[in-house]
Write a structure and sequence with these properties.
Length: about 280
């Protein structure tokens, strides 16, 4: 075989590897942790960008409540404690955007804790027609109970994964962002089905699809709790305005009635005086 041909064939795998690596680099989506820009000390901001354009944005405050066992004072029995793990500022973030599937992965304390959020966009049947919506359909929380910042004297420490599959959380019409200031509770089950881990989210603003402007959320879709609270706040004002309007109308009617009655009495007196003079 020709030496030059053999050399060319030997270079082919290397070229293929180089092309594959370059394709992967070109396909990578950049992520940014913008939590330092948040006006709330407990709220984090994460952005995923594809080809220089924002494709996923998320703002929220989060903490995870994890039950774990510790030894009782007799060193025989076990009692259950609960670790309260807040999402730390400066967390490492990874993300992936797609047409119908997106994900956000957040790790902190040297990847001891990792929160993974998975989003999906799909058709949704309504009474009138099928509409496109997106939702949070899966959550995973990976933690290590041997970490001593939040787990004090845990018995049988080790790595665990808590998950919630087939969710329909944060259901939002396609092209809109989800907004909810109220605290929301989502339950996750550990892989051994022995523990229920609780994810608490608040001050939430998320949009994993169809962002039309860079670093700008689309029109918000408020959660039912916020809408109800807003109604509860505005209802007393509306009732007060209605009551005030009714009082004004009543006073006006009384004033008109009083004026008409006075005019009628005056005319009667005038008529009686004329009769007397005649």
């Amino acid at each position: 075989m020709d030496v030059r041909l053999r050399a060319g064939l030997l270079r082919v795998p290397g070229l293929l590897c180089l092309v594959h690596a370059m394709a992967r680099i070109g396909a990578e989506q950049e992520v940014e942790n913008l939590s330092g820009l948040s006006t709330s000390p407990g709220k984090d901001i994460f952005v995923v960008r594809d080809n220089g354009t924002t494709c996923l944005m998320a703002e929220f405050a989060a903490k995870v409540m994890v039950p774990y066992d510790v030894s009782a004072s007799n060193y025989v029995d076990l009692i259950t404690e609960e670790a309260e793990i807040p999402l730390s500022r400066g967390a490492e973030v990874r993300g992936k955007c797609g047409t119908t599937e997106s994900e956000l992965q957040i790790s902190w304390l040297d990847k001891v804790y990792t929160l993974k959020l998975y989003f999906v966009k799909e058709g949704h049947n309504t009474t009138k027609r099928q509409e496109a919506v997106w939702k949070l359909n899966k959550i995973q929380f990976v933690y290590d109970s041997s970490e001593r910042t939040y787990f004090k004297d845990a018995v049988n420490p080790g790595k665990h994964t808590a998950s919630s599959h087939h969710l329909s959380a944060l259901l939002t019409p396609a092209g809109k962002s989800y907004e909810c200031q109220a605290q929301q509770t989502i339950s996750l089950i550990t892989s051994d089905h022995q523990r229920t881990v609780t994810l608490l989210l608040s001050e939430v603003r998320i949009q994993p699809f169809d962002i039309s402007a860079d670093f700008v959320f689309s029109e918000e879709h408020k959660c039912p709790v916020d809408e109800r609270e807003q109604l509860e706040e505005t209802l007393p004002l509306i009732l007060g305005l209605i009551l005030g309007l009714m009082i004004v109308i009543t006073v006006c009617i009384y004033h008109i009635h009083h004026k008409l009655t006075a005019n009628q009495i005056f005319r009667c007196l005038c008529r009686d005086s004329n009769d007397v003079s005649q």
